[in-house]
Amino acid sequence: MAGQFIDARALDWDEVTARLGAAAESPAGRALCLALPFAADAAEARRRMGAVAELAGLLRAGETFPSLAAPAIDAALAAAEKTVALGAEELRPVAALARVAEAARRYLLAPTPVAIPEMAGLARDLDPPLGLARAIDETFDAAGEIRDTASPELERLRAERQTLQDRARTAIEELMRVEEYASVMQDQFFTIRAERYMLPLKASA
Questions:
Q1: Per-position b or e across 8-44, b if 16+ CB within 10 A of its CB
Q2: Is the pLDDT of residue 6 over 80?
Q3: DSSP string, 87-156
Q4: CB-based contacts of 70: which residues, under 8 Å, 6+ apart?
């Protein structure tokens, strides 16, 4: 009836959203499920029910949906808004979320055994930042270190550093082989502490 108020408790809405949240694959998805409000009007309710019916039809047809297990990026976004520099640990989840969204978008816009106009319409609104995801992947290696290829200048500086390190090692190894210093050397090896080369001299020297 128009204008009639429906009490959510009468429809066990809390139980519905709790069960929906239990099936979510990410913390963010679970939070959205638990906070899901009633439809604003009958038209919106019909659209939602139509989308659910489309997904149910895909499941009955034996389809397997792409994973929606997306990482949480709220903290990274908050830090970015404050112009805080983000590292690999903060940026990798952003790239992962973009790939999850793109996989869902690609699946819902591809031909399916059941017509899904409502879900396809939602998918068209997705615009995951794949360029950003590629940039993150190209910047960091598997260990979370910045790749040499991240920038020509960085690659040049790292190559220069390696050359200097090789020269320093060669010079020290040659120094340790000099007969003049043999009597003061404890061992024929060196260590690096605080980015400095240390020679093992005898305490008496």
A1: eeeeeeeeebeeebeebebebbbeebeeeeeeeeeee
A2: no
A3: -HHHHHHHHHHHHHHHHHHHHHHS--SS--HHHHHHHHT----HHHHHHHHHHB-TTSPBPGGG-HHHHH
A4: 25, 26, 28, 29, 96, 97, 100, 101
CA distances from 191 to 24, 162, 168 (A): 52, 17, 12
Based on C-alpha coordinates, what's the Rg of the chain? Answer: 30
Q: Cα-flanking dihedrals φ and ψ of residue 140, to 5°?
A: -110, 140
Location of structure tokens 């979320």 = 97
Residue written as tokens 């099936």?
23
Find the mean pLDDT for residues 23-40. 90
For the chain, which residues make up each domain, given as ranges? Answer: 63-149, 152-198
Strand, coil or helix: what is 195? coil
How far is 67 from 107, CA to CA, in rounded Å?
11
Q: What is the pTM of this model?
A: 0.69
Q: How much is the pLDDT for 186?
A: 79
Task: Tell me the H-state helices in 1-41.
Answer: 13-22, 27-34
Cα-flanking dihedrals φ and ψ of residue 191, to 5°? -125, 170
Kindly state the tokens that stand for 139: 């910047």
CB atoms within 10 A of CB 58: 19
Contacts of 87 (CB under 8 A, 6+ apart): 144
